[in-house]
Amino acid sequence: MGKIGRTTGIILCAALLALTLGTSAALAYFSDYEPAEGKVTFSYSGERVITEGDNPKEKNIQIKNTGAETDADVVVRVGIYGPKGFTHIECDETVWYDGGDGWYYYKGILAPGAETPKDSLVVKIQKDGRDLTDKEVAELGDSFQIAVVQEDAIATYEQDASGKNVLVNPDGWKLPVGEIPVE
Question: Distance (Å, rounded) from C-alpha 104 to C-alpha 114?
Fold first, then answer.
């Protein structure tokens, strides 16, 4: 086997160093995380705002269609994620539908400026069916979090055989379209 020249050796060492540094930076990037704080509105068709109330032991969820960007009617759904055994959801079944897929579907169409009724979807921090005291909630620490995620889709319609407009269920949704009145 022949000798490696000085220039070739330097190039190989530089390439090896760059590869090593690039790999460790990539590994550090993929192995680190930071939990998000605050409220973020996700939307594809204008702005919907989630209001959760001010009580630290419960979230009274309301969704408002501000009509920003588009003045479209929308259908909405809410996902609620929290520690098992501590997250209790109270749902008014005349207003919300539990799709059994992790989502609660609003049984209505939100026009611009409209919002879901207050006290119709509430998440409480409970243990064994009882509300926790302020001290017990404080003892859970900062790692205890209940996340509320909202999605919306522009309400779309089609005509049935009788010529009546009916709401179309967005792909992947279990929205009970038959229970939602269309004007």
Answer: 18
**DSSP string for the chain:** -PPPPHHHHHHHHHHHHHHHHHHHHHHHHHH------S-----SSS-EEEE--S-TTEEE-EEEE---S----EEEEEEEE--TTTEEEEE-TTTEEE-SSSEEEESS-B-TT-BPPTTSEEEEEEETTEEPPHHHHHHH-TT---EEEEEEEE--EEE-TTS-EEEPPPTT----GGGS---
For the stretch 44-88, pLDDT in tens is: 444 566 667 677 778 888 888 887 666 889 999 999 888 888 888
* In contact, 90 and 126? CB cutoff 8 Å: no
With CA atoms as reference, report the closest residue to 146 among 127, 126, 123: 123
Look up residue 123 and give its amino acid: V
Predicted confidence (pLDDT) per residue in 97-107, tens digit: 999 999 999 99
Domain ranges across the chain = 1-33, 48-179
User: What's the pTM value of the predicted model, to 2 decimals?
Assistant: 0.68
Distance CA 175, CA 178 (A): 9
